[in-house]
Amino acid sequence: MFQCLILGADGKLNLLTRKPDLRQAQQTPTFSDEQIHIWKDVKGLSHSSNPRALVSQLGYDRNIAMEAKTPGLTFFNGQRVVEVFDQTLMNGDSIIS
Question: For the chain, which residues make up each domain, given as ranges?
Fold first, then answer.
C-alpha cells in the first residue's frame, strides 16, 4: 500500500514499510535496523491502522501531522489513515521541503 516515514518532534526518524521493501530500506544509510518497522498484515484490518499503532508504540500521542502532498499517496489511502487516528491530524505538507 505505502511506506510511512515518521518524524518525531525529537528529530528521530522511523520508517514503516512492507516486508518486500525491507531490503531496500536496509540499503538506505538514513535508517538503522531499529528505525525500520514492518507493517503487519492482519486479515480484516486496514493497513492504515499500522501507522497509528507505530505512532503509539513510539510514544507520539498528540500534535500529529500528515503530509498529504506526496506523489504516491492517493486520496483514498490518505483518508484511510486519517480515519484511524482518534484526533484531528494537522497539515504536515510544509514540515519537510
Answer: 4-91
| Cross-strand bridge partners of residue 91 | 66
pLDDT along the chain (97 residues), means of 10: 78 86 88 88 73 83 84 85 85 80
- Can you give the three-state secondary structure of the chain, one letter per residue? CCCEEEECCCCCEEEEECHHHHHHHHCCCCCCHHHEEECCCCCCCCCCHHHHHHHHHCCCCCCCEECCCCCCCCHHHHHHHHHHCCCCCEECCCCCC
